[in-house]
Specification:
alpha+beta
């Protein structure tokens, strides 16, 4: 049995800015309500330690292996509870360029294994999607705030040159 979960959000910022925030795992405690703590290196094959805030269940640690790191495009990991086939979670963060600017961030996972029905009977899917939504909304606010500040700074710099003058 498998279960697919996903949340997407449009962000008015370049992929590089979204990637910068997503991969600055040391800063998660300051902005990320779903993954408040992350330890380890974002390198294919490395094992990291991730803490998920599952609300009434508290904060739950797990140790996935990073399976894909493509700058400005995707980050993926695989977490297993027990041997393969018990409860495996393939998590993905995919950044899609949008026509006209900005990106769509897709956060999702595929859960497999014989414990999958039990985990969802316990309301895990709703908690996970709520966490995705909160994380994505916070990332969006942070990415767009940085973009707004850059636009304001760039606008002030060009205004200081005077009308019709260019650098």
């Amino acid at each position: 049995m498998s279960r697919h979960l996903q949340h997407e959000i449009d962000i008015d910022a370049p992929a590089s800015r979204v990637w910068e925030i997503l991969t600055d795992t040391d800063a998660y405690a300051g902005w990320n309500p779903f993954v408040p703590r992350f330890e380890g290196e974002l390198r294919e094959g490395s094992r990291v330690k991730v803490w998920l805030k599952l609300y009434r269940w508290g904060t739950v640690p797990f140790r996935p292996v990073i399976t894909s790191v493509v700058p400005n495009k995707e980050l993926r990991w695989l977490a297993k509870s027990g041997p393969t086939g018990v409860f495996d979670v393939q998590r993905r963060f995919v950044i899609h360029e949008r026509e006209g600017g900005g990106v769509r961030l897709e956060q999702g996972e595929v859960c497999t294994g014989f414990l999958t029905p039990l985990m969802y009977f316990l309301d895990l899917d709703r908690r996970i999607v709520r966490g995705y939504r909160r994380m994505n909304t916070s990332l969006k606010a942070l990415a767009e705030a940085g973009t707004s500040q850059e636009r304001a700074r760039d606008g002030a710099a060009s205004e200081s040159l005077g009308p019709g003058r260019m650098e």
